[in-house]
Amino acid sequence: MQDKIDRLRTATITPQGLFIGGNWRSARDGALLDVVSPIDGRKLTMIADAGAADVDAAVQAARAAFEKGAWSKTAPAERKKVLFRIADLIERDALELAVLGVRDNGTEISMALKAEPGSAAGSFRYHAEALDKVYGEIAPTSESVLGLIHREPVGVVAAIVPWNFPMMIGAWKIAPALAAGNSVILKPAEGASLSLLKLAALCAEAGLPEGVLNVVTGRGAVSGEAIGLHGDIDVLAFTGSGGVGRRLLEYSARSNLKRVYLELGGKSPNVVFADAPDLEQAAKVSAFGIFRNSGQVCVAGSRLLVERSIYEEFADHVAAIAAKIKVGDPLSLATQSGAISSEIQLEKDLGFAGQALSEGAKLRTGGGRILEETGGFYMQPTVFDVTPEMTLAKEEVFGPILSIIPFDDEADALRIANATPYGLASAVWTGNLSRAHRMVRGIKAGVVHVNTYGGSDNTVPLGGVRQSGNGHDKSLHAINKYQDLKTAWIQL
Ligand code: NAD
After folding, report:
1. Residue 366: helix, strand or coil by DSSP?
2. Under a CB-based contact definition with an 8 Å cutoff, are residues 399 and 298 in contact?
C-alpha cells in the first residue's frame, strides 16, 4: 500500500471552488486562501474564501432544494439507496481521500485511513440503514381523540466542522441530517477542506439532487459567522472550540434562534487504579490515547490520573512508551504520530510546554519541536507530572502533551477527574467491578471507557456534558437532532 500512497503524495491539486446548488463556483469576490501542508510547510493549493453573499447563495440553494422536495419528499427507500451509494464511493476512493486529507491536515495515514474514509463510509451506511426504521408515535389520548406525533425534517441544516478529523466529523453530521430529509450547508475548517470538497463531488456522483449538499469553504470569522447569523438556517451543528461555540449561541440569539448543537473540547481524565487487570496494556493504551493524531483529538485522554502506590513506575513506563513513538512523515505507514496541523497550533502547543515548566511541572519526556529541517510542524510526544492547580491540569491543549497527576483513593480520583469545566470523555482502569460502576456513575462525561481508552462505533452516541457541549453525534439519537416533532390532534 505504501507505493500507492507515494504515488498520490505529490499529485497536483487544482485550486478548489465552492459547491453550491450542484455547481462549482468561485467566491463572489474571487477571494482565495492558500492551503499550506503541515507535512513540509509548503503551499498545496488554494481554496475559495467565501463571503456572506456566498453563504446566502448556499442557503438559498439549500432552501430551494428542500421546498422542491427532490430529496426531502422522496420515499425513505430512495434516499437510502443514494446514501448507500455515497458510502460505496467513499470506499472506492478511500486511499485517495485519506492521502488528500493527510496532505491537508497532517494526521498519520494509518489513523486517517481508519478514522476518515473508514468512519465516514460507516456513518453513511449506518444512517442509510436507520432512516426507514425511525417511526412517529400515537399518543395515549382519550377515546374521542387521536394524537399523532410526526417526525419531520427541520429544513436547512448547517454543519461547521474542525480540522482534526474533517471527513469523520463531517459525516457524523451530514449523514443523519440527510437521512432525515434535510438540505445541508457544510463549512469545513480552513486547514482541512480538501477531502470534504471531494466528498461533495462523490455525493453528486451518487445521485444526491442539486442543492441538497452545499460546501462553503473559507475563514471561520467570515463565512462561519455568516452561517451563524443567517436567518434561514434551522439547525446549526458545530464541532470545535468552546470560544467559537459561545459565539454561535450569540449569533443564534441575534438572528433567528436557530437550534445550535455544540460538540466542544475536553480535558479528559484517564484514571488508573493499582488493581487494573493489565497495567502493561493500560500504559500502552493510555499513551496512544493521547498521542495519536498528535493529541489533536477532542476525546484525547490528556489527564492521566494514577493511584499513588503505582505512580512512579507507571508514569515512568508511559513516558518511556511516549519517547519511543515514531513521529514523522504523516504519509508513511510506519509513522505513529504525524504533524501538528499548522504552525500556529504548534506554537500554541510549545507555549503550553513552556508555561508548564515555568509553573514548576516536571518534564519526563519531550517538550520540543522536531524535524524542523522538513519545513513541517512536528512536536515530540511530551509528558509532564503536574499538580491539579497547574494550567496543564485544567486547560485543553489539543496537542501532544500528557499531564500525569497522582491520587490517593477513589474519592480523590473522582474529585480530581471532575475538577474541570469539561465533560467529554474519560476512562477508568480497574479489576473491581463495583468500583468500575461507581466511577461510571461518578465521572461527569459523555463517555466513560472501562479498561480501554477511546473505543467507539456508530451504535453509540458521542457528545459532551457541561462545557464540552450539548448534542450527540452518531447512533439513532443523531437523527433526532435533525428532526422536528409535530403533533396532529384529531377530534374523532
Ligand atoms: P475552531 O473552533 O477554531 O474551528 C472550528 C470551526 O469553526 C472551523 O470550521 C472554523 O472555521 C469555524 N469558525 C471559527 N471562527 C468562527 C466564527 N467566528 N463563527 C463561525 N465559525 C467559526 O476549532 P478547531 O481549532 O478547528 O478545532 C479544535 C477544537 O475542536 C478543540 O477545542 C477540540 O477539542 C474541538 N473538537 C471537539 C470535538 C467533539 O466531538 N467534541 C471533536 C473534534 C474537535
Report:
1. coil
2. no
Domain 2-264 is classified in which CATH homologous superfamily? Aldehyde Dehydrogenase; Chain A, domain 1 (3.40.605.10)
Three state DSSP letters for 42-66: CEEEEEECCCHHHHHHHHHHHHHHH
Q: Where are the beta strands (DSSP E) in 23-110?
A: 23-25, 32-36, 43-48
Non-local CB neighbours of 173 within 8 Å, separated by 6+ positions? 157, 159, 161, 184, 186, 237, 239, 473, 478
Residue of 49, 107, 164 to mutate, ligand 1, most atoms within 8 A of C-beta: 164
Torsion, Cα of 438, 277, 275, 362 (10° steps):
-100
For the segment 326-352, the average pLDDT, to the nearest whole number, is 97
Q: Report which ligand 1 atom has the smallest distance to the Cα of 464.
A: 41
In this prediction, residues 32-45 reach a mean pLDDT of 98
Q: How far apart are CA 185 and CA 163, in angstroms?
A: 17
Cell numbers representing residue 292 in the block: 495519536
> Which residue shows C-alpha cell 499531564?
403
Distance 268 CA to ligand 1 centre (A): 17
Give the CA radius of gyration of the chain. Answer: 23
C-alpha cell read off for 430: 480497574
Judged by DSSP in three states, 375 sits in coil
Class of domain 269-457: alpha beta
CA of 364 to the centre of ligand 1 (A): 30
pLDDT of residue 270: 98
- Give the Cα separation of 367 and 379 in Å (integer): 7
pTM of the model: 0.97
Domain range summary for the chain, segments of one domain joined by +: 2-264, 269-457
